[in-house]
Amino acid sequence: ATLGLDQDAPLEALMQAGASHLWLHASPIQTLVTQADRRILVEGRGCRVTDAQGHTYLDALSGQWLVNVGHGRAEIAEAMARQAKALAYGNASRAATLPAIQLAAVLAHLTPGDLSTVFFSSGGSEAVESALKIARQYHALRGEPERYKVIARRGSYHGATYGAMSASGSRSGVDSYFGPLLSGTLSVSAPYCYRCDYRKTYPECDVYCVDAIEDLLRYESPNTVAAVIAEPVSAACGIVVPPAEYLPRLREICDRHGVLLILDEVITGFGRTGKMFASEHWDVVPDIMTLAKGLSSGYAPIAATVCRQPIADIFGGANGKAIGHLLTFGGQPVACAAALANLDILQRENLVRNAEQQGAYLLSRLHDLASRHPSVGDVRGLGLLCALELVTDRRTQQPFPVDGPEIHYLLEKLAELGVLTRAEGNLYLAPPLCIERHEIDELTGIVDTALSHFEEAHSYL
Ligand code: PLP
């Protein structure tokens, strides 16, 4: 190839070219050659991926929490090719396409309650960005333009674009370069019982952390708040599964004060937690639900912001008002075709039920493993969304250094034994929803061995 390298170029040359020209996200430039845990992936089948050197690994993070139906699904590739040949693009604001209409109708049907109207975009950050703008414009159109504030939970992650980043719960680390953030974004503590910010214990606490949201609302004056945004189960907080009372009470608080509830199901949607949507574990219907990742299992970049009927009513009807928001790639028909084929597999193969069953098994194996490993302070999970929280001392719950050499050692050991995943203070385990019981045995066996090496190498700290 005259313009670059062909696929058969030697690995060294590919790595060098990647290091020089490809900027991996959330990474320093050139990490492809400077960090041992970066690799070039070339193929995937089911729960496994293969790198350019021919090593095959169990993909314990489903790519980036998204390859729900597994790798290598030819049906999805074929559906995309059919649509690309028929029509590769319509017009996001002036024309609908068949797959966009079909997918919107499927999502209206799958999502709970009267969630009914779908605004498409390309990724989770855009889905959140859209939700925030819809919430503000909704209040403005109803005659309450002063409702602009958004409350999020500390430690949560809603995306990388400015609105989504501002509504995420981190004000330190790399985020500190980008201020000032969107004004009016506030934060409260997450329902993180292992490290409760209020030094309380469940159930005696009576879930004070959700009442604290109402306290903040009252303090800010409720009629200045547009929305509360939350992940039903927060992956970024460390797979924080809230107490049973939390989300139903949050729904009541939002209703009491006319505040919209945005549930961000970008990770938890499409079966990840053992139900189609995690909010269904607690029978809570948000006003706006954000979806991405598992919507296409990563086969195409697509996301959705799904709104309840009262919101659609404000923007719709004879006197309908245009939303001030247009994304060229919203509802891109090839991506919609990928999502439709993906959802078809998810349902045909009962993968949501499989996630529930295999998730329960994975969690029981992780509890067993935790009882034997002093580096594991806590085990959390719902469905196939699990984490082991690593500590330097179980008794004091001393948190683990998030990006130190010890974590890199653990990740390299896991890769050497055949597992790819991610670890910071937590070791995350979220494999594709098509995983089978023997693969969970293989996965947890490798985690067990890797933790033993890790504890021995650091004699346990
Ligand atoms: N919301 C949640 C809950 C996420 O976990 C993420 C990404 O991990 C996002 C939003 C942002 O999605 P994207 O990276 O597709 O923009």
UniProtKB/TrEMBL annotation:
<dbReference type="InterPro" id="IPR005814">
    <property type="entry name" value="Aminotrans_3"/>
</dbReference>
<comment type="similarity">
    <text>Belongs to the class-III pyridoxal-phosphate-dependent aminotransferase family.</text>
</comment>
<keyword id="KW-0808">Transferase</keyword>
<dbReference type="InterPro" id="IPR015421">
    <property type="entry name" value="PyrdxlP-dep_Trfase_major"/>
</dbReference>
<protein>
    <recommendedName>
        <fullName>Aminotransferase</fullName>
    </recommendedName>
</protein>
<dbReference type="GO" id="GO:0030170">
    <property type="term" value="F:pyridoxal phosphate binding"/>
</dbReference>
<dbReference type="InterPro" id="IPR015424">
    <property type="entry name" value="PyrdxlP-dep_Trfase"/>
</dbReference>
<dbReference type="GO" id="GO:0008483">
    <property type="term" value="F:transaminase activity"/>
</dbReference>
<dbReference type="InterPro" id="IPR049704">
    <property type="entry name" value="Aminotrans_3_PPA_site"/>
</dbReference>
<keyword id="KW-0663">Pyridoxal phosphate</keyword>
<dbReference type="InterPro" id="IPR015422">
    <property type="entry name" value="PyrdxlP-dep_Trfase_small"/>
</dbReference>
<dbReference type="Pfam" id="PF00202">
    <property type="entry name" value="Aminotran_3"/>
</dbReference>
<keyword id="KW-0032">Aminotransferase</keyword>
